[in-house]
């Protein structure tokens, strides 16, 4: 299979068409962004690390019988995905208080939530991805109530699998962001990426093994992601 025309260029990925209408070729790039894109930096090697990490995670999710967009890893920076139309929601699940949740409720980071909490953010850079509720999702005609319930159920199910995957390498899954997409037949499946760019991962000794090292300038992103990848590869 070959990549053909560029379909879309995002903050950290390029999407190309292939000869197969139902398949896209994705290339991970080295750009790191924070503050909703206001801070941008090229970090050599970041694309390759995220592609390899997300590929390993999606292979594990596929093996658990979950339907995802992931087909195969092509190279260190490229993968093949089923073509979906992305639902404009960032679906965030929180197990532990951190980040914007800590700020919103004036809480210390690190409090373990009794029950995981699922949140929706409307994917719109111009609006700074606002926090929205189910009724806003309906109002914006993004998904039906049945689909909203499906997204929440699926995210909780994915959380259970991800918690185990990360625990195997000694990391606590604090929170993460998912994106879902619709296949041509309308079915909703998991898409996008799952990596330290989109998940908060804390080590037992309190180290941030995720993008917070970049957001907060508290460590080296490449060293951190390399350690995550090396540990994950041992669980293959
Ligand atoms: N997240 C993401 N993309 C975004 C915003 C958040 O992948 O545009 C992830 C983030 O890495 C974290 C979770 O979603 O794992 C919750 O992020 P939060 O709302 O706390 O926002 P932040 O503090 O990162 O701005």
UniProtKB/TrEMBL annotation:
Q: What class of enzyme is it?
A: ligase
Q: Which reaction does it catalyse?
A: 5-amino-1-(5-phospho-D-ribosyl)imidazole-4-carboxylate + L-aspartate + ATP = (2S)-2-[5-amino-1-(5-phospho-beta-D-ribosyl)imidazole-4-carboxamido]succinate + ADP + phosphate + 2 H(+)
Q: What is this protein called?
A: Phosphoribosylaminoimidazole-succinocarboxamide synthase
Q: Which InterPro entries match?
A: SAICAR_synt/ADE2_N (IPR028923), SAICAR_synt_PurC (IPR033934), SAICAR_synth (IPR001636), SAICAR_synthetase (IPR050089), SAICAR_synthetase_CS (IPR018236)
Keywords in alphabetical order, please.
ATP-binding, Ligase, Nucleotide-binding, Purine biosynthesis
- Domain called SAICAR synthetase/ADE2 N-terminal: residue spans: 6-229
Which branch of life, at top level?
Bacteria
Which PANTHER family does this one have?
MULTIFUNCTIONAL PROTEIN ADE2, SI:DKEY-6E2.2
Hey, which family's this protein in?
Belongs to the SAICAR synthetase family.
Task: Give any Pfam family that matches.
Answer: SAICAR_synt
The EC designation for this entry is 6.3.2.6
Write the lineage as a comma-separated list: Bacteria, Bacillati, Bacillota, Bacilli, Lactobacillales
Signal peptide positions are: none
Q: Which organism is it from?
A: Lactococcus taiwanensis
Which CDD domains does the entry mention?
SAICAR_synt_PurC
Q: Which GO terms describe its molecular function?
A: ATP binding; phosphoribosylaminoimidazolesuccinocarboxamide synthase activity
| GO biological-process terms attached to the record | 'de novo' IMP biosynthetic process; cobalamin biosynthetic process
Q: In which pathway does it act?
A: Purine metabolism; IMP biosynthesis via de novo pathway; 5-amino-1-(5-phospho-D-ribosyl)imidazole-4-carboxamide from 5-amino-1-(5-phospho-D-ribosyl)imidazole-4-carboxylate: step 1/2
């Amino acid at each position: 299979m070959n990549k053909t025309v560029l379909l879309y260029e995002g903050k950290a990925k390029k999407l190309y068409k292939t000869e197969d209408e139902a398949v896209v070729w994705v290339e991970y790039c080295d750009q790191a962004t924070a503050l909703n894109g206001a801070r941008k930096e090229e970090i050599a090697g970041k694309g390759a690390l995220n592609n390899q990490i997300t590929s390993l995670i999606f292979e594990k999710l596929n093996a658990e019988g979950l339907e995802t967009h992931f087909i195969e890893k092509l190279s260190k920076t490229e993968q093949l995905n089923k073509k979906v139309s992305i639902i404009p929601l960032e679906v965030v699940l929180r197990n532990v208080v951190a980040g914007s949740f800590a700020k919103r409720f004036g809480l210390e980071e690190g409090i373990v939530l009794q029950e995981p909490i699922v949140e929706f953010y409307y994917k719109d850079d111009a609006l700074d991805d606002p926090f929205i509720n189910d009724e806003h999702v309906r109002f914006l005609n993004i998904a039906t109530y049945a689909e909203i319930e499906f997204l929440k159920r699926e995210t909780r199910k994915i959380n259970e699998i991800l918690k185990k995957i990360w625990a195997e390498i000694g990391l606590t899954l604090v929170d993460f962001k998912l994106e879902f997409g619709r296949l041509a037949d309308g079915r909703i499946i998991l898409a996008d990426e799952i990596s330290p760019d989109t998940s908060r991962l804390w080590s037992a000794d309190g180290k941030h093994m995720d993008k917070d090292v970049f957001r907060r300038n508290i460590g080296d992103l490449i060293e951190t992601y390399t350690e995550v990848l090396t540990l994950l590869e041992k669980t293959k």
